[in-house]
Amino acid sequence: MAFGEFDLIETYFTHRLPQRDDVTVGIGDDGAVASVPEKSDLVVVTDTMVQGVHFDQDTPARAIGHKIVAVNLSDLAAMGAEPAWISLALTLPEINDEWLTGFAHGLREICEYYNCQLIGGDTTQGPLSITVTAHGFVPNGKAIRRSGAKPGDWLYVSGTLGDAGLALAARQHRQKLNPDYERRLTERLYFPSARVALGQSLRGIASSAIDVSDGLLADVGHILKASHVGARISVDELPLSLAVTESLSAEQAITYALTSGDDYELLFTVPEAQRGLFDTVTAHSPSKPVCIGRITNEPELVQLRFGDEAWELPEGLAGFEHFRKTELSQ
């Protein structure tokens, strides 16, 4: 008997993922039925990963399963939301048991960790492409948006920058790394962490937030555009891992931190009046956020400073954007 679409769903996805009490109807019907808690808003995010654009044929299937969920949960985290459900649209060139087993394993691991249930989706045949839509909850009116930053707010980032970009450069043979550093950075590239707990703790404290997916400069630009403000960034305060600082010159390290994506840290603003509460809430955070600058009143203008001096990014580098190809020059 041929192995068809419904066999695929039943074998790899139906019974292998967490089950939540708020899901009445999950996989197996024409649609899912789930309940949103009282006094909560529903936050919905979607991301797609395509072979040849977001990963290559050598990327482990388990890593792809993890990452496609992580990038969605990172978006939920940026809005202060609690993850709940995901749906999956999976396009495969063929049914490959080894690949599907690894992919389902990566998907299951991260869903179990964050208590997300797979409630539906679709499978089709074609070039390898994966789309996940994630749903989460936030108390009514408490979603953190990009549009709330005000002049004088402090700009923070939740963890080290440039790690995933440097790992990618090493994989593409554009940068040679110490083998131990390459293993650590590749782990960051393949298995990013979504800062879900931090995002929820920022409700009512952060005035704006976004996750760093396309590069710090590109993503801070989204906040500045939405909020009609500018920013002054102290590049000497950017949090960098030992692997980055010991593998690159100071200028290269800063450039990677500003322009390379896939780190999935949270970038957010905190008003002066909330800094005390913010420090209290994040005092015991495993990834203590770092202040890297301040919001200004000059719309969409980014000033880069190294100490008291202006710092300029090498020409042509800004961050990743679809339909515009950019690459870090070495």
From TrEMBL:
Protein residues bound to Mg(2+) 4: D30, D75
Domain PurM-like N-terminal: 28-138
Enzyme class: transferase
One function term, GO molecular function aspect: ATP binding
Pfam family, one: AIRS
Single GO BP term: thiamine diphosphate biosynthetic process
Record: residues binding Mg(2+) 5: D214
Binding site for substrate: H54, D262, F320
Annotated PANTHER family: THIAMINE-MONOPHOSPHATE KINASE
Name the UniProt record assigns to this protein: Thiamine-monophosphate kinase
UniProt lineage: Bacteria, Pseudomonadati, Pseudomonadota, Gammaproteobacteria, Alteromonadales
